[in-house]
Amino acid sequence: MANSKRQLFLKRRLRVRNKLRKMNRGRVRLSVHRSNKNISVQLIDDVQGRTLAAASSLEKDLGIVGKNNVEAATKVGAAIAERAKAAGVEECYFDRGGFLFHGGIKALADAAREGGLKF
C-alpha cells in the first residue's frame, strides 16, 4: 500500500527532527509551522523546554492579512530575527518540520538570516 501525503509528511518531520536532535549542541531550535492560511515560528530551548520567542502571520502588528504567502513569511522571518536578538539568541537550528524548503519556508529562513540569525 502506498503512503499517503500525511504519512510522508510525518516521516519527513521525524527525519528532520531526529537529525537536529543528534546535532544539538545547546543551541535553540527555530521551529516553523505552516497551515493553508498562516505561518508561525518559535524559538524553542529544548534543554529547558521553553519557548523564547515566537512570531506568526496572525499578529495584527505585523500588518499581514491572514495570508500564507512569500510576503507574509518574509515579514514573520524578520519579526522572529528581531525578537531573537531581544532574547539574546544569535545562533539556532532551523527546524522546517516536514515542510519542503521552498516558497514561504525558504522566504522565512532568508528573512531571518538577513535579520541576523545564524543557522
From TrEMBL:
Question: One Pfam family from the UniProt entry?
Answer: Ribosomal_L18p
UniProt keyword annotations, A-Z: Ribonucleoprotein, Ribosomal protein, RNA-binding, rRNA-binding
Gene Ontology terms describing biological process: translation
Give a Gene Ontology cellular component term annotated to this protein.
cytosolic large ribosomal subunit
- Fetch the PANTHER family from UniProt: 39S RIBOSOMAL PROTEIN L18, MITOCHONDRIAL, LARGE RIBOSOMAL SUBUNIT PROTEIN UL18M
Family the UniProt entry places it in: Belongs to the universal ribosomal protein uL18 family.
Please tell me the species this chain comes from: Marinovum algicola
Q: How does it assemble?
A: Part of the 50S ribosomal subunit; part of the 5S rRNA/L5/L18/L25 subcomplex. Contacts the 5S and 23S rRNAs.
Q: Which HAMAP family match?
A: Ribosomal_uL18_B (MF_01337_B)
Q: Does the keyword Transmembrane apply?
A: no
Molecular-function annotations in GO: 5S rRNA binding; structural constituent of ribosome
Task: Return the SUPFAM superfamilies for the record.
Answer: Translational machinery components
Q: What does this protein do?
A: This is one of the proteins that bind and probably mediate the attachment of the 5S RNA into the large ribosomal subunit, where it forms part of the central protuberance.
Signal peptide span per the entry? none
Tell me what this protein is called.
Large ribosomal subunit protein uL18
